[in-house]
Amino acid sequence: MQNLTELSPNATSPKSFSVIIKVCVVIPFFCIFLCCIAVMLQIFASQRQFLDISRYILFAHMLINDTLQILSSVLLFLFVMGQVKFPLLFCVPLLFVSTGTFQNTTLILAAMSLERYVAIFYPLHRPASWRSDRIWIIILPLWFISFLFPIIEFFIEKHNPALDILSSNMLCKATVINSSPIQGLYRLAVNVLFFTVVGVIILFTYVRILLETRKLRQDRASVSKAMHTVLLHGFQLLLCMLAFTSPISETLVLHKKWPAEDVAFFNFFCFMLMPRFLSPLIYGFRDQSLRKHIGKMFHCYAHKNDTLFKY
Question: What is the DSSP letter of 178?
Fold first, then answer.
């Protein structure tokens, strides 16, 4: 979690009002996001037909992944804002979840693009691993790979033997836990690798489906829809890549002499949280079947509230 962890450890003490404002900005967005995700996950749990389609299973895993990512990010944000220090034993797993889920989002996007590719080119003879009852063969390695790299990053450098994981309290930041130059270089290389590979996969599937659209005379509507879906995954990938634009924004505001903690919060909110809020919501509300069930559910909740208010 590179954007969040740049918050200055001494920034909150003289500016408690600024801290309160920042927390009051983040928490409502977080609650709204959780409500929307809870509605969509409830739809998946209650509507069996969604669990019989590989695309929706992958999307459900993306919702769970992004929920864990935002939850861990907001927790880290609150801990840094409150200057909460706690042992490595509790800090490191939280950083693993934050970093692992950040990287896992890109892999799930690649898997969803490949799923559309398989659905178009192998509609009747779909490979077994891409069927809804065996899609876990694809999903489990994604989670394993995503969490493997943060673990390697943590152990790539020898830590101070005098540092006790139970009694040594510290501010839970990636720049504190993984502070060596080699760890920073490793982190950069992994992020570049992830986004490059996923970008190539999305571009490949989009071009192949685009060429297929020109060949087909029948069922062009479904192929065109798949092409637009892959294009949306490319847009979601761009949203994820906004997390790496923080150095640019810091350079732009440097001459204005903004406080470092305000710049870090701006990067965290605009380039980390907001894309995570928007990406699953755009995909979920764009899907016609999901949108129909979401509308029904909100209508049902509104009707129940009206009934309660009458009493």
Answer: S
- Give the residue from 172, 195, 217 showing the smallest Cα distance to 104: 195
d(CA 34, CA 28): 10
With beta carbons less than 8 A apart as the criterion, state whether 157 and 76 touch: no
Residues sharing a CB contact under 8 Å with residue 186, sequence separation 6 or more, in sequence order: 152, 153, 156
pLDDT (tens digit per residue) in 185-221:
888 888 889 888 998 998 898 888 888 777 765 566 7
Bridge partners of residue 86, in order along the sequence: 170
In the chain the first and final C-alpha atoms are separated, in Å, by 48
> Is 265:5 a contact under the CB 8 Å cutoff?
no
Residue whose entry in the numeric block shows the structure tokens 């839970």: 172
Which two three-digit tokens encode residue 278? 């928007």
Q: How many CB atoms lie within 10 A of CB 217?
A: 6
Neighbour tally for 206: CB within 10 Å:
21
Residue 188 neighbours by CB under 8 Å, 6+ apart: none
Instruction: Break the chain down into helix, strand, coil percent, rounded to 5.
Output: 80, 0, 20
C-beta of residue 120 within 8 angstroms of C-beta of residue 206: no
- Beta bridge partners of residue 171, listed in sequence order: 85
Q: Which range, of 23-27, 143-147, 219-223, 304-308, averages the lowest pLDDT?
A: 304-308
Pick from 274, 233, 266: nearest CA to 247: 266
DSSP, collapsed to helix, strand or coil, labels residue 171 as strand
What is the torsional sign of CA 132, 134, 137, 140? positive
Q: Which residues contact 156 (CB under 8 A, 6 or more apart)?
A: 182, 183, 186
